[in-house]
Amino acid sequence: MIRVNHAGEFGAVRIYQGQLAFLRNKKETADKIAHMLAQEEIHFKTFDDMIKDRHVRPTVLSPLWNVAGYALGAGTALLGEKAAMAILPGTTATRPPPTPDLAGTPALYIQSPVES
Question: Given CA atoms 39, 99, 91, 69 in this order, what sign does their dihedral have?
Fold first, then answer.
């Protein structure tokens, strides 16, 4: 589960980065996305540290997710603010519930930034 959460956090970071690249001039939307990006970066760092500490191999699909996540974010941003904002709940809403291998991880890191 750590690998799955790590990949999900990485993907969310890349989606938000792609969106910000094209929506920086839309202040209100950019501020919301930047806030969520900051939360996802914290979440990603937590799972990245867990991956290293527990000697878990990250997903082999990271290079693909790197490009695909950014492209998804950029693509939705190019469709407009509504499309960009519509994808935000989807980046975090499908996270699995906490499992024993996440025991001790603060709930902040395993809940959606949209919920917090």
Answer: positive
